[in-house]
């Protein structure tokens, strides 16, 4: 199974802190999973110009290819100006229309204010649904006060991130089963 | 230009042709790939077999990406012209955006002379963008490159002397583009993707269209074809002067399940290697339904479906894609044989003179 986690912030450390915890949990408890954490802050990603994802070069090609090959994505996003940032939206724009079909996607949000809670529900989930992802219903919402100097200091967040990782993997297995049943009935 | 200028004769019924994208992919089951030479030889042989089976049209596409061998599609068509005598030949498609229309016309007028008046152009905009870098064009000009060059191509076809000025090539002053085709003009079609938006452009321009259906629900494509004819009327053209060609995946076997099972790995792999995403199996399975455009099933089912589509769409030509995704050549041969012996006679019987 291939899982790709994305830290979607190009500035700041909160999202990356949360996603590093996700990576630790994954590597510790599920070493059999082929796991990759992509930090968009370290990548030089170009804006989508509408071409097929295989036709980009450099970091852009590397990131799109990894996503397309994954069974599951764990998207970590900050909220800027009551919105997912352009860096995250651009990733979706780089991919084909139904790129997330047969992929499980789960969401981790870091935000400076509890007022941003519905941003992922109302902005991110519709995009994921349009791209045909199987979205894990529960998201992990992290506020600034849950973090201190690049550490998670609220155990509740640890518990919920642990669950998110576990549930993501269970979802992949479950949907694989579902898909198999659907396809076995075909031809 | 009217239907006869596009070399379409009602008495001949619905035209049945084959189109190859010129792909060069490994066999989806064995992973083995024939050499580029062998693949080109296969394409020429496919045209010859199509002619022998009584098919009306054969075309090869231009692509400049990995897993394709039709970069110089006009050259391959030259070989097809020599290997055949009656079958009409064309491009599917010629990427007009990244070529000089004068050179395209020279190539295809020459092809028309070589083939004794059988050459046609289907002009497209490219579904991939890598060739813009390769051939030195800017992707930002994607739309304008095509529109300007396609207009020029049409102008060259209509006029012996061309005066023209545009943004993407040097102006033409009283230029004579030679040679002229055998009967002075070539049928030039516009390649159109599935959505209505693209078909509308062909209608507004007053050119025949070849529309890509591949697979999917018939009513969606019917909307596009209706929109095309409606927009011809808006521009005061008569829709009965303009032929429509449809294109799609085709595979005949003893029964539907066998046909689906045998074709799927090739279509899935072909899409993956060409576009980076495979063909979803459940959507593909819809191909067996009467209301899906894909022609996959037993010969009898395909006959019924073709006639149903003809009733619904009123098109003049159907182009089958039978060699995609590394399909073994024996299977291609077998399909041509089934088309020629079982399907074509029935479809012609029903559509002749209509």
TrEMBL record, chain A:
The lineage of its organism: Bacteria, Bacillati, Bacillota, Bacilli, Lactobacillales. GO terms for molecular function: oxidoreductase activity. InterPro entries: Flavoprotein-like_sf (IPR029039), FMN_Rdtase-like_dom (IPR005025), NAD(P)H-dep_FMN_reductase (IPR051814). Keywords: Flavoprotein, FMN, Oxidoreductase. The keyword Flavoprotein applies. Its EC number is 1.7.-.-. This is Flavin reductase. It comes from the Bacteria. Residues 1-143 form the NADPH-dependent FMN reductase-like domain. It comes from Ligilactobacillus salivarius DSM 20555 = ATCC 11741.
UniProtKB/TrEMBL annotation, chain B:
Pfam families: Bac_luciferase. Its EC number is 1.14.-.-. The keyword Nucleotide-binding does not apply. It comes from the Bacteria. It is an enzyme of class 1 (oxidoreductase). The keyword Lipoprotein does not apply. SUPFAM superfamilies: Bacterial luciferase-like. InterPro entries: Bact_Lucif_Oxidored, Luciferase-like_dom, Luciferase-like_sf. GO terms for cellular component: cytosol. Residues 26-315 form the Luciferase-like domain. Transmembrane segments: none annotated. Keywords: Monooxygenase, Oxidoreductase. This is Luciferase-like monooxygenase.
């Amino acid at each position: 199974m291939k899982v790709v986690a994305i830290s979607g912030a190009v500035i700041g450390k909160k999202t990356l802190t949360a996603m590093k915890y996700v990576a630790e949990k994954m590597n510790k408890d599920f070493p059999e999973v082929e796991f990759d954490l992509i930090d968009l802050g370290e990548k030089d990603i170009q804006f989508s110009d509408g071409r097929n994802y295989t036709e980009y070069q450099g970091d852009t090609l590397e990131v799109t290819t990894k996503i397309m090959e994954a069974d599951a994505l764990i998207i970590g996003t900050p909220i800027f100006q009551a919105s997912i940032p352009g860096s995250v939206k651009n990733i979706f724009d780089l991919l084909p229309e139904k790129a997330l079909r047969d992929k499980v996607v789960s969401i981790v949000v870091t935000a400076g204010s509890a007022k941003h809670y519905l941003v992922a529900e109302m902005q991110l989930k519709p995009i994921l649904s349009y791209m045909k992802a199987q979205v894990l219903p529960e998201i992990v919402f992290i506020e600034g006060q849950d973090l201190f100097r690049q550490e998670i200091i609220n155990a509740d967040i640890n518990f919920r991130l642990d669950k998110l990782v576990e549930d993501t993997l269970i979802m992949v297995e479950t949907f694989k089963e579902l898909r198999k049943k659907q396809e076995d009935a075909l031809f | 230009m009217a239907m006869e200028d596009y070399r379409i004769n009602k008495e001949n019924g619905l035209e049945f042709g084959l189109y190859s994208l010129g792909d060069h992919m490994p066999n989806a089951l064995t992973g083995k790939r024939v050499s580029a030479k062998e693949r080109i030889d296969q394409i020429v042989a496919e045209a010859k077999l199509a002619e022998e089976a009584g098919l009306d049209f054969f075309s090869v596409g231009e692509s400049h990406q990995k897993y394709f061998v039709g970069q110089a599609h006009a050259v391959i068509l030259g070989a097809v012209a020599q290997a055949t005598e009656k079958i009409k030949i064309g491009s599917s498609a010629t990427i007009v955006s990244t070529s000089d229309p004068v050179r395209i016309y020279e190539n295809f007028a020459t092809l028309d002379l070589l083939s004794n008046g059988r050459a046609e152009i289907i002009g497209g905009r490219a579904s991939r963008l890598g060739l813009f870098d390769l051939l030195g064009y800017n992707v930002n000009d994607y739309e304008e490159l095509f529109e300007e060059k396609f207009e020029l191509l049409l102008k060259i076809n209509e006029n012996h002397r061309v005066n023209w000025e545009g943004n993407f090539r040097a102006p033409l002053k009283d230029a004579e583009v030679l040679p002229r085709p055998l009967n002075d003009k070539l049928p030039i079609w516009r390649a159109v993707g599935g959505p209505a938006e693209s078909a509308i452009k062909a209608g507004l321009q007053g050119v025949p269209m070849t529309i890509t259906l591949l697979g999917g629900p018939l009513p969606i494509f019917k909307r596009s074809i209706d929109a095309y004819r409606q927009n011809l009327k808006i521009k005061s053209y008569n829709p009965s002067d303009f032929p429509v060609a449809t294109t799609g995946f085709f595979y005949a076997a003893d029964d539907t399940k066998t046909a689906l099972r045998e074709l799927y790995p090739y279509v899935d792999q072909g899409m993956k290697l060409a576009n980076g995403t495979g063909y979803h199996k459940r959507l593909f399975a819809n191909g067996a339904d009467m209301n899906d455009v894909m022609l996959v099933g037993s010969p009898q089912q395909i006959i019924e479906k073709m006639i149903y589509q003809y009733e619904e769409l009123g098109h003049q030509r159907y182009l089958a894609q039978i060699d995609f995704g590394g399909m073994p050549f024996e299977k291609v041969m077998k399909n041509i044989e089934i088309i020629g012996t079982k399907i074509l006679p029935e479809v012609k019987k029903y559509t002749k003179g209509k």
